[in-house]
Amino acid sequence: MKNFTEPTSAYYNNFKTPETFRKYKSPSALKTKIMTNRNSSRRNFANDLYDVYSVPQDLHDYKDGYKFTEGIYDLTNYEDCLWLLDLILDQQIDLNPEFQIWYFTRTHQNSFTLVCKNKEGNKIAETENVQANFYFDDVTIIKKDQLFCLPIEEKNY
Fold this sequence. Notes:
Distance between the termini: 76 Å
């Protein structure tokens, strides 16, 4: 024989939800909230996602004697942006080859600006209206001599 009792309505009354929880919201109000969130000004930085390379790892060969780190390797493979390194190399003719900080920043939907600064923060090159299908709004790449690395990897090499 089972010793089981069915819960009564008094038991369920303890778990009632407040009336404000049950209020109906029209789909248009929900859609408006979603649309305002989509148009927010929050920037999407690639360096935040690829900020995990804290120890020296293998270097990967690139063209003309250039090399890049594991972080740059993952960035170019997973985000399909090897063209960005080619664009940076195209700018090397007039620049000091020792130390450069490259900022690739979204200005409009698929339009970006590529800015190079030296160690002191002075702008030494700029390319505007670069058309690209790139997921992130911003990425920073450091070029030290013949090596491309992420900012977190700079001290390792």
